[in-house]
Structure formats: structure tokens, C-alpha cells
Design brief:
There is one protein chain. This protein is of the alpha+beta class and about 130 residues long. The chain has two domains: about 45 residues, no CATH class; about 90 residues. The chain is about 50% helix and about 15% strand. Strands 3-2-5 form a three-stranded antiparallel β-sheet, covered by helices on one side. The protein has a two-stranded antiparallel sheet with strand order 1-4. Helix 1 runs antiparallel to helix 4 and helix 3 packs antiparallel against helix 4. It is globular. The relative contact order is 0.13.
Length: about 130
């Protein structure tokens, strides 16, 4: 069984199935062997007031599933719809690949990996917003 490997910096915190875990004084790696475990790096978390753009709102929606604050059944359809809508703006091949990967992982209930692919769109979104594009 493969699993998810998370590398943590000293004193970094991660939310794992609703429990906050803080690393010690040294770098460490965690191997998450449980399929579909809900994992969220707290340093990567977007706070509600920061969810002020389409990509950030989509990430926040997915983050709520990982934190246990939203039920998958309630969020899956709006989340997939939001990812599809992002595809109307991010039309380049790389972005389309990232969005397809995010959708695939959401459909496979691999929410951390879906989040990881969506986060890769943040720099592109920042560039678009800086230019005044929709």
C-alpha cells in the first residue's frame, strides 16, 4: 500500500482527521497509510476572510471537507462545479491538466491531493488578477 507522505518542518502543525498534530524540534516525515484520511497542513490553510478569489474559494471549500467542517455529500457537487468553472478561465494546457487532476482526486475521495493541484493555480490566478483579467 502506498499512502500519503507529508514532510513537516520543526514545530509545523497538521490537521489529521480532526486532530491537530504538532511536529517536534526536527524535520519529520509522516506516512499516512489510511486511505482517504483527512489531512490539512495548517500553514497552507486559507482562512475564511482570505477566500476572496475563485481559486481560493474553491480551495476553501475543499479545505472544509478536510477539516471535517463540511460533509462530502454537501460539498462534492458545488466543488466539482467550481472546478469546471475555473476551467473556463484557465484555458492553457497546464492549468487544464491541474484542474482535471483536481477533479479526478475529488471524485476518488483523495481530497488532500485535489487540494494540492488546486493550490498550484494560485500563482496563475494572482497574475490574472494583477492584470485585471476576470
Amino acid at each position: 500500500m502506498t499512502g500519503l507522505v507529508i514532510r513537516l518542518a520543526p514545530h509545523e502543525r497538521v490537521l489529521l482527521n480532526g486532530a491537530v498534530i504538532e511536529n517536534g524540534d526536527r524535520r519529520a516525515s509522516l506516512s499516512i497509510k489510511t486511505p482517504n484520511a483527512n489531512v490539512l497542513r495548517l500553514r497552507d490553510a486559507i482562512h475564511p476572510e482570505q477566500a476572496n478569489s475563485p481559486v481560493k474559494r474553491t480551495i476553501y471549500m475543499l479545505q472544509l471537507v478536510l477539516s471535517g467542517d463540511s460533509r462530502v455529500e454537501d460539498v462534492r457537487a458545488p466543488l466539482l462545479r467550481a472546478i469546471d468553472q475555473l476551467g473556463e478561465v484557465f484555458r492553457d494546457a497546464d492549468s487544464q491538466h491541474l484542474l482535471r487532476s483536481a477533479s479526478t482526486h475529488v471524485l476518488s475521495e483523495e481530497y488532500y491531493l485535489g487540494l494540492k493541484f488546486l493550490r498550484l493555480l494560485l500563482p496563475k490566478e494572482a497574475q490574472l488578477l494583477a492584470r485585471g483579467a476576470p
